Amino acid sequence: MPTYEYACDRCGRFEVVQKITAEPLTECPTCGGHVQRLVSRNVSIIFKGPGFYVTDTRAENSSKTSSDEKAS
Fold first, then answer.
1. In 3-state terms, what secondary structure has residue 54?
2. Over the stretch 1-59, which tens digit does the pLDDT of each residue have?
3. Which residues, 6+ apart, have CB-to-CB distance to 7 below 8 Å?
4. pTM of the prediction?
5. What is the DSSP letter of 10?
């Protein structure tokens, strides 16, 4: 489950772990004040394994074949 960051008008900032499908909070769980969900900068995306670049999935002879076809 992702962690969302909220800003309370009275308390300041806090984080809450919620499901993606859960509705955003409208009041602070500590003081009951108005809160606004912030856009998070902490995105922990990790790319593992091959296939993220065009050169990762090509066959070794594909560049030779395409250059041979252009010459013909």
1. helix
2. 788 899 998 989 999 999 989 999 999 999 999 999 988 666 666 667 666 665 555 55
3. 13, 35, 36, 38
4. 0.54
5. T
